[in-house]
Amino acid sequence: MRILIVNDDGILAPGIEALYRAVADLGHVDVVAPETTQSAMGHAITVQAPLLVHRLHVNNAFHGWSVGGRPADCVKLAMMELLDTRPDFVLSGINAGANTGVNVLYSGTVAGAVEGAFFGVPAMAISLELSEEVDFHRAGQIARRVFLDYVAAQPRPGACLNVNIPALDGGWPRGIRVCPQSTTPMEDRYIKQMDRDGRMLYLLDGRLPDCKHPDTDLAAIRERYVAITPLRFEMTAHDHLQHVREWRWNDGFAPDSDRPVA
User: pLDDT at residue 90 above 60?
Assistant: First the structure.
């Protein structure tokens, strides 16, 4: 089995080392990760500049490719250039902080997994809810167990799971829940500041919202369950498609003109 590991916290982050150590004995493991932190970069890719790539030996744990780009860049480059053989699975993480609800759209960790799914490779994003004592070693053990179950299930090509591990300072998780993502928005705010030159600055600050909807990923980790959410990158709102088709789209267009009729 061949595994590709990526993250968004950077190749030197403790979470990616913990994930590597947790699965290293399961097969051939390649690490291709951003050179620096790329949190909240979403599915951005680099299109206006070349990507600087070099080999790196990290903490006597693994050799990996360090990429001066985003998580999606790392997976794309690995698939198309760096790896001789395409992986059987893509693992992204372990992220420092939960990626539940709308954070899925912002998350570079999730983007790394989804990019793997773009290439038809089953993928899994793993994130750990932050707490006073962040235990990536135990999170790696949990990730390994979930991953082995994923492998045993023989997922279809391009399948993608978002796995969120609750804070571990309260003990081992109570179990696993497969659930949809929450749609409750983040409780964001901007803190206004002034620098020494009198320029106005705004610093984004926010927190996960109170859980208003049961049976979601946010509710699961709040109740100390590992949350597993299947994701797809096909974002069409199929339940709304026919309704939109019925709108009078063509009334304002002349059949033989490049310009719409006023």
Answer: yes
